Amino acid sequence: MPLPKAELHLHIEGTLEPELAFALAARNGVELPYADTEALREAYRFEDLQSFLNLYYELMAVLRTEQDFADLADAYLARAAAQGVRHAEIFFDPQAHLARGVAMGTVVEGLWRALGRSEERHGVSTRLIMCFLRDESAESALATLEAARPYLDRITGVGLDSAEVGHPPVKFREVYDAAAALGLRRVAHAGEEGPPEYVTEALDVLGVERVDHGLRCMEDPALVERLVRDRVPLTLCPLSNVRLRAVDTLADHPLPAMLDAGLLCTVNSDDPAYFGGYADDNFAAVGTVLGLSRDRLRELARNSFLASFLEDDEDRRARYLAEVDAYEFGDTVA
Ligand SMILES: [Zn+2]
């Protein structure tokens, strides 16, 4: 049984495995330019951000109906549960679907079909976080928030993702202010490929409570000090960082130094179908390659629950933390 954990940085569209992509393509009469699942799996072995994004958006064409989104989320939740995930805060990218003519209600209600049954079916509690694409305009983000208004009872917070460089957080000040006024929690990708100043800006201008990635904070000692002091969680994605070349190899990952610095780090899978592993695969990789002790792995698991948006259910958070404390590592685990 894997270490119990929360997953806080997970794009649901990034969980689309080749088998499900083909099944949905067949169901919807969508032609995929790949001979079979093996050929598609080969395409998943891209080497850089742009080829990843091209494939990521290309494959979204198979997601058309509520049932498609439900099947996608249900497949993720089953895999996550098998990897010890007890709570998942799931990102989705509505603009990528609205642009294809798929309505907000189709996306949210479809995901909810799976999320609403997740505890009963998989033993995984969930939250939904709606992300804005930062390479789209500020006006588009505002229109997206407006389109989401009828579904806000399903949505816990907002985030910011896609290509970071050249799209600083300040561009989204207005939509984050509007989201805050609606009572939504706020997170943002920052400091993955963008500079540490983007992390500072996300905190100061967008009021984010959690930073997604954030690993380049290590270039700014004053920022590290602030993140430690204010206990701002960082949602790191080690295998993703390797695939997208944020680090050269996993052995070069700053996670051990970040933990030593006192940062509240968590380990997550980002787009696991594409990046070579789900939540516990990331834990196993950092345990093995970075030589993290069992105490460190337990700390990462504790952090994931401390950083999760469970303020409306503190009893649950306490139960999860007790599970982490009681966990006994098997001999085969790092
Ligand atoms: Zn991400």
From TrEMBL:
Catalytic activity: adenine + H2O + H(+) = hypoxanthine + NH4(+)
Keywords: Hydrolase, Metal-binding, Nucleotide metabolism, Zinc
Domain Adenosine deaminase: start-end pairs: 4-317
Presence of the UniProt keyword Metal-binding in the record: yes
A Pfam family that the UniProt record links to this protein: A_deaminase
Cofactor: binding details: Binds 1 zinc ion per subunit.
MF annotations from Gene Ontology: adenine deaminase activity; zinc ion binding
Function field: Catalyzes the hydrolytic deamination of adenine to hypoxanthine. Plays an important role in the purine salvage pathway and in nitrogen catabolism.
Name of the featured protein: Adenine deaminase
